[in-house]
Amino acid sequence: MTWTNRWETSSHVVPVRSAGEYSIAVSLGPNAAKFAENAAVGVVLRVDVIGDEPAGPQHDAPVVAKSDKKADNKGGSAAHADSGEAAGAGWTGTVTAAVGGAVVLAAGVRVRGDAAQVGHEDDKGWRVKRQRSRGRVASAALAALCAVAALPGQAWAAGEPSPYTYEPSAQPVKGAVVNTDAEQLKAGGTYKDSIKPGGKLFYRVVLDAKSNAYVSATAVPKLGTKVSYADELKVTLQDRDGNSCNYGTAQFQSAEFARPVGTYAHRTIDKDSTSCQEADTYYVLVERDSEATSSSEPWDLEIRHLTEPGLKAAGPTAAPENWPSASPEPPTGGPQERRGGTSFFSARGLKEGEWRDKIKPGETLFYKVPVDWGQQLFASADLSSAAGEGYVPNALAMAVYNPARGLVDSASDVAYDGKQKSTALDPLPPVAYENRFDSKDSVNGMRFAGWYYLRVSLNPAVEKEFGSNPLGLSLRLNVKGDAQSAPGYAGPAGDFEVTDDHLSAAESGQSSSEAEKSGTMQLVAAAGIGAGTVLVLGLGVWMLVARRRAAAGPPSAGQGADSGAPTQYGPPAAW
Q: Is 4 exposed, middle or buried (0-12, 13-18, 19+ CB in 10 A)?
């Protein structure tokens, strides 16, 4: 900072001309929610103020040539000392530019006196020392990367079961009481709403005459609220005449504790059917039926609408009559650790094998497994033993959902007495297009390839009997059969396929939220490298110009050279 900066032409130099408080702003853009479940991210801000004060011709005092790096000029600790090579003015502008829009705080920096004057000795014997702030660009870039790459904060308080994690892209929607007021759900979209006991909510979808359509709803009661056996979530797809194309239901049944439950309704293209086959507007009706003894609080809803392309040519229309149902041998290789997610969106990828986790009373964990055409999924869950005595009926609940988030099947609920327990899904058929023509949910739900989701929930009553410590959870997964060719879709399969990315996520345990963060971080890294290159090149040009000016010596009297007066006019030749 120097008094003579006011005569400079550069917009980032002119304002740095007076001693006082300088503010630094660092901002976190709203798009951060796309790669951070909790947008409160850590930020590291490094600021250097170089040079002793007062310094400069207006103070009749020289700039100190070198600072003591063991302490700052005000007696501060080494942590506050300059991290650069020489004393001088820290270039806070590069810090702001490097962080630019990634994260932000507000901070104040007091700058007193002048720093960074041109290094030459005039004919009056007055000498000003040139000082550079080397390494500032690197420090600023590191601060920016630390800010962006910081892990999100905990989404729940320590010791509490994790809440349901919604997709960041989920849009708010308001279900209508009557169908004529219904808002449209667009294919590929995810939406958020809520529903009260006895509620009936209408939404609208526009379907063509070629694609299969799916609308799922996941109900998320608040933890600790009371639910009953027959409390039900129902999703129905209707045509304009009020005829039902299809419906699905989800109940809590004997495991009467609050946890996410979901189901879907669909329109399946069938050449032998005349119902709901034409291109038109259709209505989605979501209903909640609750017992009088259940909590009256609304359930949050996550709604998703997907379409599956039709076939180029007519395919099979008869459900398979026979398929292998023998249980496979236990997976080999030993157990591996993998932490479950809290929703469909944050579900952790798994491949065939044995996987260990911890689950708290009242907690629900989600996992996902890629299952390709022709492959068959087998899954079981084991709950560890615990100290103490007690008995909790229906302690562990497990269910499997298909890529459209339709409920395929549920395992038998496990009663728990402190001894290790296990449960397993009944054998499911290999994934096949023709499964959709079977009347049984556990068969027609295995109708396409993609992510299949496992939801595992532990009854909160376990805490009363056996304490709040998490119990060990072990999942055994088998995916039998070789992947077969997909049916002849007339368009992109979208969510209904298994790609190399799916297999990679299953190998590494990556969730959809982490995959989005990874993609965003790659973009941020690329942008950071590009911006850093520009800053370094600019700094190099600046240093070269400064050195050439210094080598040329002091300017002549006719060019505005220093006259020896206490006050110097005109911008500094270099800094």
A: buried
DSSP string, 394-441: EEEEEEEE-TT--EEEEPPPEEESSS-EEEEPPP-PPP-GGGGGSSSH
Q: Which long-range contacts (CB under 8 A, 24 or more apart) does 10-13 make?
A: 12/93, 13/571
pTM, full prediction? 0.66
Contacts of 458 (CB under 8 A, 6+ apart): 359, 360, 361, 362, 363, 364, 383, 395, 396, 471
Q: DSSP letter at 485?
A: P
CB count in 10 Å sphere of residue 426: 12
Sign of CA dihedral 175, 177, 181, 184: positive
What is the rounded distance in angstroms from the CA atom of residue 121 to the CA atom of residue 132? 18
Q: Which ranges in 90-232 belong to alpha helices (H)?
A: 92-99, 136-149
Tell me if 82 sits within 8 A of 50, measured CB to CB.
Answer: yes
pLDDT in tens, the chain (575 residues): 675 776 666 666 767 777 777 777 766 665 555 544 444 555 545 566 766 555 554 445 444 444 444 444 444 433 333 333 333 444 344 433 334 344 444 455 454 444 443 344 443 443 333 333 344 444 443 343 344 333 333 334 433 455 899 999 999 999 999 999 999 999 999 999 999 999 999 999 999 999 999 999 999 999 989 999 999 999 999 999 999 999 999 999 999 999 999 999 999 999 888 999 999 999 999 999 999 999 999 999 999 999 999 999 988 888 888 999 998 999 988 899 999 999 999 999 999 999 999 999 999 999 999 999 999 999 999 999 999 999 999 999 999 999 999 999 999 999 999 999 999 999 999 999 999 999 999 999 999 999 999 999 999 999 999 999 999 999 999 999 999 999 999 999 999 999 999 999 999 998 876 666 555 444 444 444 554 555 555 566 556 655 665 555 554 444 433 334 444 444 555 55
Fill in the amino acid letter for 543: M
SS3 assignment, position 59: helix
In angstroms, rounded to a whole number, what is the distance separating the alpha carbons of residues 453 and 350? 10
Residues 353 and 337: their CA atoms lie apart, in Å, by: 11
Place of tokens 């007021």: 181
